[in-house]
Amino acid sequence: MLLPILRIVPPLSVNQFYTQHISRVMSGIKQEPPRVVDADIRRDYLERGCYYDLVHALYMRLPADMVNSKESKIVDAYTGGKAATGKELTVDVFRAANAAKFKQDNVSDLTFFSVASA
Predict the structure, then answer these.
(1) Which of 1, 39, 63, 93 is the most buried (most CB within 10 A)?
(2) Is the pTM of this model over 0.90?
């Protein structure tokens, strides 16, 4: 329900939303997934997918200087005012995505091996 709203509101409103919520969005992306039961894993993938959709909306709706610069209020909120380059958010998004991809590939490999050996 939030994504359609973020797609139509003015960029200033999008900027304000992410300035207030970027830390929570990134926390959701970077948290370690629970690996207890299949239901937890499925919920985790769904939840992370929603967070990545929010990040995608951020990069699609706002110009680069509002997301990827030292002057960015969003980066400032994310780093707690300690932005060195202004690219900290983007770097962390890519790191989290690569880590998730690596984990997904490993889970797929394990699933293949457990099925093949059965």
Answers:
(1) 93
(2) no
